[in-house]
Design brief:
The protein is α/β, with parallel strands linked by helices. It folds into 2 domains: 174 residues, Rossmann fold; 205 residues, 3-Layer(aba) Sandwich (Rossmann fold), CATH 3.40.50. β6 and β7 form a beta hairpin. α4 crosses α7, α8 packs across α9 and α9 packs across α13. The longest helix is centred in the C-terminal third of the chain and has 19 residues.
């Protein structure tokens, strides 16, 4: 089950060379359980066939304003009523101009004008066309109407020019769609999330680290942003793309993470420490690569700052109820005992415990099974879920705690 399950999406495709990308978007929407109805402009049919889109969507494709076989159904009215969200991708300068001026000379623009569902617009065009004052004015007008615009990417165009105008990638569009559809129950909250591993250098080419991929922390950042929070993500080195709509602060070491977190904590209503911070670092580092050849090698380790414990102690000393502190405990044995101990010792509001020994619940996987314990002795065990679903369930629990604090 995903956030797009059972959602009815109307996908409008217009006459851009990037129309071919819409085929993959349809497949992605259907894979997540969404129902997709495709509406194409006449120009779009020159780039990708209605037959292709019908096969991928599993539904009839609409591209004529008037149909002789079903005149009584009034497609531009009925289609406007039937969907949870309208997605126009790619959106050409022509279509953006139509929508900005309320013109209805094709089926897609007539549907959008008659629809009360939210509309997400993903522009795609030559960079000079995109940057032209007329296009920028039309985009600004659409925003005043409540349309949700997704900025295009920069890059090389089909025409060979470089600049803004490439259709955004699906993960960015998806994040916008999910935010538009989500209940904005975290609006007004400022949430700091840490994610990923840290690296503690030994010499210029070696470091101490761990297997954390950052997937859980990034899923939390995306989910919180979807639900309206202002999210700051302090992340160690990962291979994950930066979440759309999130302020990303990249760090490497535990000391760097400590500095960035402590500098921002005063602005936050919630801190979620999902990072796997290295407990120790080498007491000294080598300026040059250590050569092999010695039969053995020893080096001293010293403790890194315990960021979460320090935050909990500061909160206790100040007597403040905010920020709410949420920790993670990745355990291989005595999971609940260890998690409960950390909850008490670090003065946390909630801790999320997961078994790193499971094949589907440890590091570098897309699923998780966690138990949440809060300071009021509340406990909730979640089944095996995707990390995205787990993130939303954690935020649901967090909201309950926030209501209790209020």
């Amino acid at each position: 089950m995903t956030q797009l399950a059972d959602k009815k999406i109307l996908l409008g495709i217009t006459g851009s060379i990037s129309a071919y990308k819409a085929a993959d978007w349809v497949r992605a929407l259907r894979k997540e359980g969404g129902t997709v109805t495709v509406v194409m402009t006449e120009s779009a049919t020159k780039f990708i066939s209605p037959l292709t889109m019908a096969a991928l969507s599993g539904n009839r494709v609409y591209h004529h304003m008037f149909k002789d076989d079903e005149p009584e159904k009034i497609p531009h009215i009925n289609l406007a009523r039937e969907h949870d969200l309208n997605l126009i991708a790619p959106a050409t300068a022509q279509t953006i101009g139509r929508l900005a001026h309320g013109l209805t000379d094709d089926l897609l623009s007539a549907i959008i004008l008659a629809s009360s569902a939210p509309t997400v617009v993903c522009p795609a065009m030559n960079s000079k066309m995109y940057l032209h004052p007329a296009t920028q004015t039309n985009i600004a007008t659409l925003k005043t109407y409540g349309y949700h615009l997704v900025d295009p990417d920069n890059g090389t165009m089909a025409c060979g020019e470089e600049g803004p105008g490439r259709l955004t990638e699906w993960p960015v569009a998806r994040q916008t769609i999910l935010k538009v559809l989500a209940k904005q129950d975290l609006a007004g909250e400022s949430i700091l999330i840490t994610a990923g591993p840290t690296r503690e250098p030994f010499d210029p080419v070696r470091f101490l680290s761990n297997r954390s991929s950052g997937k859980m922390g990034y899923a939390l950042a995306e989910a919180a942003s979807q639900r309206g929070a202002r999210v700051t993500l302090v992340s160690g080195p990962t291979t994950l793309p930066a979440p759309a709509g999130v302020e990303l602060i990249a760090i490497t070491s535990a000391q760097q993470m400590h500095r960035e977190v402590m500098a921002r904590v005063g602005e936050m209503s919630v801190v979620i420490k999902a990072a796997a911070v290295s407990d120790y670092r080498p007491a000294s580092t080598y300026d040059h690569k250590v050569k092999k050849g010695q039969p053995s090698l020893q080096f001293e380790l010293i403790a890194n700052p315990d960021i979460l414990k320090e935050l909990g102690q500061d909160k206790k000393n100040s007597g403040c109820v905010t920020p709410l502190l949420v920790g993670f405990a990745a355990e291989s044995q005595n999971h609940l005992e260890e998690g409960s101990r950390k909850l008490r010792e670090k003065n946390l509001d909630m801790i999320v415990i997961n078994d790193i020994g499971g094949a589907n619940t440890g590091f570098e996987v897309d699923t998780n099974r966690v138990t949440m314990i809060d300071r009021n002795n509340g406990r909730e065990e979640l089944p095996l879920l995707s990390k995205e679903e787990t993130a939303h369930r954690i935020l649901d629990r967090l909201l309950q705690l926030m209501e209790g604090k209020r």
